Amino acid sequence: MTTHAEPATEPPVSEAADTDDEVTTDPGWFRKAVVYQIYPRSFADSNGDGIGDLPGIISKLDYLQKLGVDVVWLSPIYTSPQDDNGYDISNYRDVDPLFGTLADLKKLTDGLHSRGMKLVMDLVVNHTSDEHPWFVESRSSKDNPKRDWYWWRPPRENPEAGPGSGAEPNNWGSAFSGPAWEFDQVTGEYYLHLFSRKQPDLNWENPEVRAAVYEMMNWWLDRGVDGFRMDVINFISKDTSLPDGLKAEGMLFGDGSPHFMSGPRIHEFLHEMHLEVFAGRDKPLLTVGEMPGVTVEDAVLFTDPARREVDMVFQFEHVALDQEDGNKWRPRKLRLTDLKQSLGRWQEGLAERGWNSLYWGNHDQARAVSRFGDDGQYRELSAKMLAGILHLHRGTPYVYQGEELGMTNMSFGAISDYRDIEVLNHHREATTHLGHTDAEVLAALAPLNRDNARTPVQWDASRHGGFTTGAPWIAVNPNTSHVNAAEQVDNPDSVFSFYRKVIALRHSEPVVADGDFTMLLPDDEHVYAFRRSLLGPASASGAGATPGVQLLVLGNFSGEDRTVELDGGGWGDAEAGAAELELGHYPAELILGNYPHDGAGTHDTVTLRPWELKVFRRQHNN
Ligand code: NOJ
Predict the structure, then answer these.
(1) Is residue 375 part of a domain?
(2) Closest to 30 (Cα-Cα) out of 229, 219, 274
(3) Which of 124, 202, 257, 328 to mutate to test the pocket of ligand 1 (most atoms within 8 A of CB)?
(4) For residue range 240-253, what is the model confidence (pLDDT) as tens digits?
(5) Strand, helix or coil at 313?
(6) Which candidate, 320, 357, 427, places its Cα nearest to that of 71?
(7) Nearest CA to ligand 1 atom 11
(8) Statement: the pTM of the whole predicted model exceeds 0.90
(9) Among 424, 445, 466, which residue terminates a domain?
(10) 84 in ligand 1 pocket by Cβ < 6 Å?
């Protein structure tokens, strides 16, 4: 192994990967793509009302193009009472005036397309708002034709003592605290809501519901959008007997998830959706299903192209490792070996069939650098290291707005500083029914609450971070004074510029998109290490594949120097690695790193400095 003195060879920084024409024939185009998520409410405000909007996004299109992303996923902008910030939709075919108009959305779509980017909309069809006309009709009487579009059940005959009325049809809790059932006076029955009481669950057993959803999806595709991110889509098939869930010690409600996560008809519904909406459309589209609780085995089925369900899923395993029993209000320290074990298993499980999505954060998760890195002294270094590690896995990476700036968690004070319904409901439940003090609850919810990710994007160093000229709907992180886009966009050493390089590498280097993945050093508690390998094309004589390209990716997840052994250039398991590709004798070059100088290394060892990332590449030279 050799290392160069600085500057390390950098990949050319390119704009978005492909034009529409180039990708039309390639159904796996998204392997080379990077998706950027916009949470509109917190992105950029154009009219001074303190809430981000579509014209605000349009004003930042050059920024997105400069970053080099290929696809923008827009969190919901549809008409909504905003009980859950737009994940409660009352009209699927219009834009909420908070965010703008359908004409603004058209302008955004065109602006993205003309810059070679695609637009993926959020599809929230496990539930609607209780103000959606479908639900208004459904609740109006027991014999309304839309009654069966939702889950209505009579009160339980023998009420139990509990924090709800006790007569709920089963003991399930809602994701936002309290029971998953709401009593409706009009007809004397309960309706099911897995999220807030203003988000009644649609009944996908009813073919009319499915037809209405598919029609709406087709309407959007016909208007030029390029796909959907499907909200909790593996909740749409429920065990129709709606049985009680197990109630764990100290919990107020039963866990209904085994009865609605990836339920009995989920594959049938997604395949039907594919046939009714996506089949026969010839332009490249993206479908990604958000799937809490999905297993690797099931993800293979969901994403195997031959089964025609979805392109990829968001799994949740790696974002539950820093919690006791998957409970975000009981945070614990993450062990790097757990993270490697989990992500490595997903890489392996989807190696032959299906495809991974890759993410550290989104609008429901804490900020990546605060959670997996060090948001103090090593904020910039660790944000860059995390980018390199994630994006060089096999799968399609997602960047959540502000991640590319190394934005951090927010330090909120009182409960009145929070805005998220999930946090507010939990605080109320924990301080009333569970007997915790305000201080205890605030301390427990600080690291992983969703408002961490929802503070406005920090565009500059001014008081409200250049996000709004008015009063922001949620406070701007005061570290906008030194963590902001204005400082980073043209600074070659910034986190933003590092993201540009990593994104460009996926576009220019086929091993990133298509290579095999092998986890190395699985027992090392500090260093994340893996190898990517891509054989060259089969030789003309038909003598099999020619030797190809390998990457070695090393990331130090600690604030101390760490030395790793490189086994004389073998880069791990010789049989599957260097020997197979006949690469052991070829020199490796450092193609990406987050320190200005290469640092120490020999043929046998590399010493990584605090939060250092090193990416080596070697290639067979014929
Ligand atoms: C998942 C979304 O990402 C989250 O923000 C929302 O609260 C729930 N689904 C309910 O729609």
Answers:
(1) no
(2) 229
(3) 124
(4) 999 999 999 989 99
(5) strand
(6) 357
(7) 87
(8) yes
(9) 445
(10) yes
Q: Which residues are catalytic?
A: 231, 290
In this structure, are residues 47 and 55 in contact, taking their beta carbons and an 8 Å threshold? yes
What type of residue sits at position 147? R
Among candidate residues 153, 182, 201, the one where a domain is terminated: 201
The pLDDT tens digits of the residues spanning 353-397 come to 999 999 999 999 999 999 999 999 999 999 999 999 999 999 999
Q: 28 lies in a domain?
A: no
Q: How confident is the model at residue 9 (pLDDT cuts 50, 70, 90)?
A: very low
Of all protein residues, whose CA lies closest to atom 6 belonging to ligand 1? 87
Burial class (CB in 10 A: 0-12, 13-18, 19+), 597: exposed
Single-letter amino acid, residue 77: I
Residue 124 beta carbon below 6 angstroms from any ligand 1 atom: yes
N- to C-terminal Cα distance for the chain?
Answer: 19
Query: 441 and 519: one domain?
Result: no
Which of 622, 388, 392 lies closest to 513 in space, CA to CA? 392
Domain region containing 168: 129-201
Q: Is 235 in the pocket of ligand 1 (CB under 6 A)?
A: no
Is 325 a member of any domain?
A: no
Residue 35, pLDDT > 70, answer yes
User: What's the rounded Cα separation, in Å, for the pair 396 and 174?
Assistant: 31
Atom of ligand 1 nearest to the CA of 450: 5
Give the residue from 337, 499, 474 showing the smallest Cα distance to 43.
474
* Nearest C-alpha neighbor of 54 from the set 67, 66, 68, 38: 38
Number of domains in the chain: 3
Element at 138 (helix H, strand E): helix 133-140
Residue positions counted in the chain: 622
Query: What is the amino acid identity at position 163?
Result: P
Contact between residue 229 and residue 155 where contact means Cβ atoms under 8 Å apart? no
Helices 438-445 and 421-432 sit at what angle, rounded to 10 degrees? 140
Whether 441 and 524 share a structural domain: no
On whether the CB atoms of residues 377 and 542 are closer than 8 A, the answer is no
Do residues 45 and 470 make contact, with C-beta atoms less than 8 angstroms apart? yes
Q: pLDDT class for 583, splitting at 50, 70, 90?
A: low
Does 362 reside within a domain?
no
**What CATH code is carried by the domain that includes residue 571?**
2.60.40.1180
Predicted pLDDT at 11 = 38
* Cβ 397 vs Cβ 506: under 8 Å: yes
Which one, of 68, 81, 77, 79, lies nearest residue 109 by Cα? 77
Torsion-angle region of residue 163: left (phi > 0), alpha (psi -120 to 50) or beta? alpha
Q: What is the mean pLDDT of the chain?
A: 92
